[in-house]
Structure formats: structure tokens, C-alpha cells
Amino acid sequence: MTDGSPANTSAFPAGIDLRLPIGVFDSGVGGLTVLRALRERLPDERFLYLGDTARLPYGTKSGDSVLRYSIQAAQFLVQRGIKYLVIACNTASSVAVEALRQRFAPIPVIGVIEPGAVAGCASSRSGQIGVIATEGTVQGGAYQQAIGRIRPEFAVVAEPCSLFVSLAEEGWTDGPIVEAIVHRYLDPMFAAHPQLDTLLLGCTHFPLLLEALRAAVDPRVAIVDSAATTAEALAADLARRKLGAPGKFEPAISLMATDGPQRFARVGSRFLGRPVDARQVELVDLVR
After folding, report:
1. DSSP H helical segments within the chain, as ranges?
2. Which CATH architecture has domain 114-226?
3. Per-residue pLDDT of the chain in tens (288 residues, 90 and over written 9)
4. Does domain 22-111+229-283 have CATH number 3.40.50.2300?
5. Of these four, 10, 67, 76, 153, which has the most CB atoms within 10 Å of its CB?
6. Where are the domains of the chain?
7. Which residues are catalytic?
8. Chain-centre distance for alpha carbon 132
9. What's the angle, vertex CA 151, arms to CA 149 and CA 154, rounded to 5?
10. How far is residue 84's CA from residue 35's CA, in Å, rounded to a whole number?
11. For residues 132 and 89, is the Cβ–Cβ distance under 8 A?
């Protein structure tokens, strides 16, 4: 079993500047939950975050389009200067991680799916794992396949919970309406599969609903957040590759979007867990 870190790739040349930032990209603001977990786990690192808000959501696009968008986003971050690339998008992780590793070696690349799958397998005692995600991620089968590679004998039940995305972006994370929607999705899932002992959050929006999700399931069910598990996997890989920052440098986070910096800032504040000033969100064009 792996720890969710990327396979070893070509080594960096001697003398790499360890102060270089870690690049993170997503189709929009959801990946800010990953950035938040990364920042908490790695407070001495600098980060460049790119939200491709002009072309979201990736989940409704063809695999070829998602791969093209992912290459463009990664290329932009690489040109800015990064020492590591994080794909903070489930759809892009399922489609593009291997292609980006090959294209941008020796820069290491990690996605959110493998670390989440590893952590889900480690937490399950019954060998039955529930995955909740968007419809595109569920239909694509990325988590089912990742779990199957790690523990082929495990059973995976995957359910799309697309309304959770809208709730998170609107800031509706508690109250009767949220509770009703959460129960509407989860109650049939656990009633049909009572042996499920692990619930894997397969969408970067879903950590905002963690308290409502926890209240809706049995306390014995472990809830695995792929954002937090990605942060742990990245920290371990940085240490293994000796790529950790030698100290804290400012600015710690630079935010970029391909469209709508005002909305990015307004909605992104909820995901990042701190106010975001739209004037500090750089508007960029990936297709020039």
C-alpha cells in the first residue's frame, strides 16, 4: 500500500531554491479547501493558487478538454516558478495526474484522489467504504478504481451529492434545509449498506458541510476529508524529497483566477476560512 504520495520521478538539479512556492490549481474555488489544509499543515511554505473560474466546472467537460485545461493551468504555474504541483480538483486528478507528471518532470505532482483513497482504506475495518462526490466524479469511477488498486477486496458504494456543491458555495452549511438535504442523500445510502464504516468526501466543496455530515451518520462512521489527506501526503513527500522550505517567506499565498475575481473572493473566503480581498486576486489568461 502506498501513502498517496506520487511515485518517485527525476530528481531536481542541485541547488534548487527551496523558497519556491507550491503551485495549486482547481477549476474554481473548491480547491481552496485543499489550500487551507496545505497552509495549516505546512505553514512555512509559500503557495500559488490558480482557479480556472472561466471554464468551470470541469466535471461536465470531456476528458480531452479537462486534460488540455489541466496542462494549461500547470504550464502557467510552472512558468511562474514552483517546486511542486498540487491538483486540487477531483476531475483533473482523475484525468491528468500521470500526464502532468510526465510532462513537467522533475517537478513532482500530486492529486487529491490517491491520498483520499489511501486514507479511506486505512480507516475502514469492515472493508466497505462510501464515497460521496459530484455526479461526474462518481460516474468516472476514479475513487472506486483507486480504492480497488489499494484493496481489491474492498466494496465501494459511490453516490453523487451534487446539491452539496451549491450549498457550500452559497454558504449554507447548517440549519433545517441543509440537514434535510444531507439526510435525503445519506439516509438511503446507509440504509441500503449498513456495513459502511467510512465515508470519503470526494469533492473539495464537501468539507464545508462536515458538521452537518457528521451529525447525519452514526458516530462510528469515519469521515475522510481528501483535502486533509492530501496535505499529509504532500508534507511526507516534501520531507522525503528534502524540498521543504528553509523558513517562512511572505507573501505566503498568492491567488489567481481566470474570471470573476470579485465572486472568487466572495465565495472563496468561505472555503479558505479567511477574508479574501478581490483586489488581491490576480486575473490571468491561460490561453493567450
Report:
1. 32-41, 63-80, 90-104, 113-123, 135-140, 142-150, 163-170, 176-192, 210-216, 226-241, 261-272
2. 3-Layer(aba) Sandwich (3.40)
3. 455 666 544 556 556 788 899 999 999 999 999 999 999 999 999 999 999 999 988 888 888 999 999 999 999 999 999 999 999 999 999 999 999 999 999 999 999 999 999 999 999 999 999 999 988 889 889 999 999 999 999 999 999 998 999 999 999 999 999 999 999 999 999 999 999 999 999 999 999 999 999 999 999 999 999 999 999 999 999 999 999 998 766 668 999 999 999 999 999 999 999 999 999 999 999 986
4. no
5. 76
6. 22-111+229-283, 114-226
7. 89, 203
8. 14
9. 120
10. 13
11. no
Residue 272's nearest CA partner among 34, 21, 23 is: 34
Are 44 and 248 in contact, with CB atoms under 8 Å apart?
Answer: yes
Q: How far is CA 22 from CA 19, 106, 121, 132, 264, in A?
A: 9, 14, 27, 28, 20
- Which triple of cell numbers denotes residue 240? 522525503
Task: Give me the residue label for grid cell 450549498.
Answer: 167
